[in-house]
Amino acid sequence: RLLETDSKSLRSVNGSRRNSGSSLVSSSSASSNLSHLEEDSWILWGRIVNEWEDVRKKKEKQVKELVRKGIPHHFRAIVWQLLCSAQSMPIKDQYSELLKMTSPCEKLIRRDIARTYPEHDFFKEKDSLGQEVLFNVMKAYSLVDREVGYCQGSAFIVGLLLMQMPEEEAFCVFVKLMQDYRLRELFKPSMAELGLCMYQFECMIQEHLPELYVHFQSQSFHTSMYASSWFLTIFLTTFPLPIATRIFDIFMSEGLEIVFRVGLALLQMNQAELLQLDMEGMLQHFQKVIPHQFDSDKLIQAAYQVKYNAKKMKKLEKEYTTIKTKEMEEQVEIKRLRTENRLLKQRIETLEKVS
C-alpha cells in the first residue's frame, strides 16, 4: 500500500509540468501544485528508505518505476547505496589503511584527475578537495583490485559518486558497481566485456535500424567509434550532468540495460540526419549535436519504447563467446604452424651446412 497509494501522486508530476498554462494565474497554480507534488515525492522516498528491506522484497517493480522518474537529489546518496547493497560493506573499514599505502597507478591517476569534470566547481581547481578525494578513491580501488588497477574513464563514475556522498561511501559503491554491474569486466586490461557490448549493440542496430546499420557499414563507421564511451562512463562524458545523473539512477536500479536502451533511442531519433552524413560528419554529430538535443524525461521515455529482449542478449553473448573462442583457436593454430615452419627451416639450413 505504501507505493500503490503514494506513487499515484508522484506519477502526476510530469503531467503537471506538461499541462501548466501560460497565464500568470495558471502558472502560479501549476507552481503550487508542483511544490506539493515534490513534497509528496520526498515523503514517499523517505518512506521507501526507512522501509527498504520490506519494499525491496515486495515492491521491486514499483521501485524501478519510481527510479525511472528520477530520485530526488536529497535522497540520491542513500538510495544509490541501498540499490547496490553498499551501505554496510566490511571493506569500508579498510579504506583509511589503503590510503596509507602506495599504488603503482598513482602517477596515471594524478594525470587523469585534471581531465575529469574539468568545468565542475568541485573538481576544476588543481589540488582542490574534489581532486584529492577523487585521487583517494581511485588509488584505494587500484590497491584492492590489482588486476584492473586504474582504467581511464572510471574516474568519471567515481566523480559522480563523490558529488553525492563522502569518499568512504563512494569507494564502497564503486566496489559494488565493479563487482556486480559488469564494470570490472568492462575495465579489465583486455576489455573483453566492452567487445561483447559492442557486438550486442551492433546486432540491435542491425535488427531494429537496418538502413542505418548498412550506412554505418558503408562508411566503415564502427560501433566502438561512438558507443564505447557510453558503456565505459554510463553517458557521463556524453550528456550534461542532469541528464547523465538521471540515466545513472536507472543504471543503479537496472544495470547496463539502460545504456543499450538509451543508445538505440539516440540512433532512432537521429537516424534521418545520420543517413545524410559521412564518417566525419557523423562523428561531429555525435560529439556536438546529440548531447544537447533532449531533456531527461523525453530521452528516458524514448529509451523505454525500445524493444529490449534479455533472452536475445544472452543468445548474442553465447554467439560472441563462440566467435572469440574460434578466433583464439585459429591464432593458436597459426602460431603453431609458424613455429613448425621456423623449426623446419632451421633443420633444412642445418642439413645444407652438413652436406
UniProtKB/TrEMBL annotation:
The keyword Coiled coil applies. Residues 70-255 form the Rab-GAP TBC domain. Residues 327-354 form a coiled coil. Keywords: Coiled coil, Phosphoprotein. One of its GO terms (molecular function) is GTPase activator activity. InterPro entries: Rab-GAP-TBC_dom, Rab-GAP_TBC_sf, Rab_GAP_TBC_domain. Pfam families: RabGAP-TBC. Residues 1-29 are annotated as: Disordered. Gene3D superfamilies: putative rabgap domain of human tbc1 domain family member 14 like domains, Ypt/Rab-GAP domain of gyp1p, domain 1, Ypt/Rab-GAP domain of gyp1p, domain 3. PROSITE patterns: TBC_RABGAP. Residues 10-29 have a biased composition (Low complexity). It comes from the Eukaryota. This is EVI5 protein. It comes from Anthoscopus minutus. The lineage of its organism: Eukaryota, Metazoa, Chordata, Craniata, Vertebrata. The gene is Evi5.
